[in-house]
Amino acid sequence: MRFVGRLLLAIAATLGVTNFAVAETAYLLFDDEDGLHGCINCNSFSSQSICNEFGKFGSELSNDSIWNDFGRVGSDFCASSPWNDFGKGLKVVDGTGRYYGRLTMNIGVPDRIDAFDPWFRAYKGSKET
Predict the structure, then answer these.
(1) Structural domain boundaries of the chain?
(2) Is the distance from CB of 96 to CB of 104 less than 8 angstroms?
(3) What is the value of pTM for the model shown?
(4) Mean pLDDT split into 10-residue runs, the chain, 129 residues
(5) Gyration radius of the chain's alpha carbons
(6) CB neighbours of 115 closer than 8 A, spacing ≥ 6?
(7) Helices (H), the chain
(8) Which of 9, 89, 91, 100 counts the most CB atoms within 10 A of its CB?
(9) Phi/psi of residue 65, each to 5°?
């Protein structure tokens, strides 16, 4: 997961240069009920970071983490999961409430953020080995 986490941070930094307004802005993941599921580009020591393996949103054991294969947003079968090929995924929103699109593997979602494709491939590849 550490490799995938670093790849994710690199992609988030790239998004800051291309589509996102300010690189210092925290990009947060929300489900459709506005439940927070972590910060994409926060420092890995932040309690909100999806890269903090010991935090609520980065732990593979937390129900609110995208890394929990059996959790609410980590399961391939949950509509809010970014890993569900047919789901809507999670909303990406900054700290001011500005909406950027969805973190999802589902290519049929019109507001999907395509820049995350390398991250999805790396994560799925790590699950197959």
Answers:
(1) 2-20+33-119
(2) no
(3) 0.78
(4) 51 47 76 94 92 94 94 92 93 93 93 83 70
(5) 13
(6) 11, 14, 15, 18, 19
(7) 2-18, 117-128
(8) 89
(9) -95, 140
